[in-house]
């Protein structure tokens, strides 16, 4: 069979890794795919660097439109990122009847519905293993390996930058700002780290996982997104004293009322395997009704780990390109005409346990007043930690862990506690999941 021909849009870190791994393992990959996979054209604005990276082994152009319009190209690999030019090029590639492989989580989390619909109409594949957790084959696992299951929830450490920062804050007792600077110096965080530290990158990935896990449309606009910028070193320390670690989790959970889709710092028991995922590594825990809990761990970024995912998609497409489009694996695991219309819940309706740090005056009856407010709101206390006031201080920290309740119950209780004259400042609330 003739080799399948690939055009690369962008040859930065991931593009370079894809080129190198495909070349290094070409024989092994051909034996798997049943035909060769050849990168025949690369588009990059920096044509000199692209020519150097490809060693003159394929045509290099500066205009990506040349690739998406080229009649010889079967698959377009989009590695430009963002949802401006990248969306335009992906839509043109689809309109031209080309299959698409992309690592672009932002593009699919926001415009996935439109892109998948266009691809369905043209009978082409859109594959995106590299978009979630880099080299970990989590899309494949959710979409195919676990297809017997009713998936109950997915919880993942799906942003390496923030996991690195949280690990350093815990291990070295440093505050967020100091560690962020260190992460930038080491190249773990971008010069503009907003997408990572504000939880947006993780929310793009959680959105994609929610769609595949539950057969719902991608709905990034319904995701709750809270990053790690307001996390305090003291909360990491108190959490540890109570037997927990704080991780930025992307959570997608099915409940009777609807889907919870949320990204936020989360206390998880230190004894869970996923709590021990440190540094820039990623891990995703999936709970299915038949299989129970399964855990996927690996590198969520980097040239060759991400290339591993991109090439796996190329192999899938090489195998299935000649198959009847209606008999390929659906983009979002469920057949397009069998997607569910389950609502994504507003945060007030989700259930969780909570860590509450309350700054109180060290006076008779303060704790009794707080526990009364919680009891009135039907919130049950699971554990408590009270520190002695520091030298010369009259206020101290009380830390309460609650049992599961609805977020709106906690919101109401927090408002009442903050109104107490014996409580100063805002209560620091962090959600908590047992992941049992
Ligand atoms: N910036 C991401 C991370 C990798 O830190 O995990 C690409 O999604």
Automatic annotation (TrEMBL):
Location of the active site: 205
Pathway noted in the entry: Amino-acid biosynthesis; L-methionine biosynthesis via de novo pathway; L-homoserine from L-aspartate: step 3/3; Amino-acid biosynthesis; L-threonine biosynthesis; L-threonine from L-aspartate: step 3/5
InterPro entries reported for this sequence: ACT-like_dom_sf, ACT_dom, Asp/hSer_DH_NAD-bd, HDH, HDH_cat, HDH_CS, NAD(P)-bd_dom_sf
Annotated EC: 1.1.1.3
Gene Ontology terms: biological process: methionine biosynthetic process; threonine biosynthetic process
Chain sites annotated for binding L-homoserine: 190
Residues binding NADP(+): 9-16
Alphabetical list of Pfam families matching this protein: ACT, Homoserine_dh, NAD_binding_3
EC top class, as a word: oxidoreductase
NCBIfam families to which the protein is assigned, alphabetical: PRK06349.1 (NF004976)
Family to which this protein belongs: Belongs to the homoserine dehydrogenase family.
Listed name of the protein: Homoserine dehydrogenase
Species assigned in the record: Noviherbaspirillum pedocola
